[in-house]
Amino acid sequence: MEFTGQCRCGKVRISLRAEVRPPLYACHCPNCQQWSGSAFGLHLLCAAQAVEVSGPVREYRYEHHGHVSTQYACEVCFTRLFNETTAAEGMRIVRAGVLEGAVQWTPQAHIWTKRRQSWITLPAGVAQWPESPTPEEFATALFE
């Protein structure tokens, strides 16, 4: 199955190939709120080799909680496309909003819920953590 999308200006295209749609999760951390200018970020956790990008991309790196995060954005319109982090080697975290059809998907998990906006009510029965879960906890919730 293939999921495609693009940045706001259309100069960068993104393609995601996977047997099934990668798991979608919402992150309510202050960084995601600030990066998105919204209440949370919606992300797809993908194998790095499954994500192809074409077009002019700019990188921004920073250290966060002892890990290096590399953000990738269109260098023309600055739409954030995905990031990589040393906390999840071999993975890319794709911004769900750049993919066609993402509006129909529901998050399978919520992280950093202790920082969520007070007006957001999280659904019962969906995995949630007050901060970042361990990789094992996250994998169990998203992939099983």
SS-derived structural category: mainly beta
Judging from the principal axes of the Cα atoms, what is the shape? Answer: globular
Order of helices and strands: EEEHEEEEEEEEH
Main sheet characteristics: 8 strands, mixed
Radius of gyration: 15 Å
Order of strands side by side in the largest beta sheet?
Answer: 6-7-8-9-4-3-10-11
Low-confidence stretches: none
Termini gap: 19 Å
Keywords for this entry:
144 residues, mainly beta, 8-stranded mixed β-sheet, 11 strands, 11% helix, globular
Structure commentary:
It is built from two helices and eleven strands; from the N terminus they run E-E-E-H-E-E-E-E-E-E-E-E-H. The protein is mainly β and 144 residues long. The strands form two sheets. The protein has an eight-stranded mixed beta sheet with strand order 6-7-8-9-4-3-10-11. It has a three-stranded antiparallel beta sheet with strand order 1-2-5, with no helix packed on it. A hairpin with a 2-residue loop joins strand 6 (57-64) and strand 7. It is globular, with a radius of gyration of 15 Å. The mean pLDDT is 93.
Please give the structural blueprint.
Layout: E1 2-6, E2 13-17, E3 24-27, H1 30-36, E4 41-47, E5 51-54, E6 57-64, E7 67-74, E8 80-85, E9 91-95, E10 109-111, E11 127-128, H2 135-143
Parallel strand pairs: 3-10, 10-11
Antiparallel strand pairs: 1-2, 2-5, 3-4, 4-9, 6-7, 7-8, 8-9
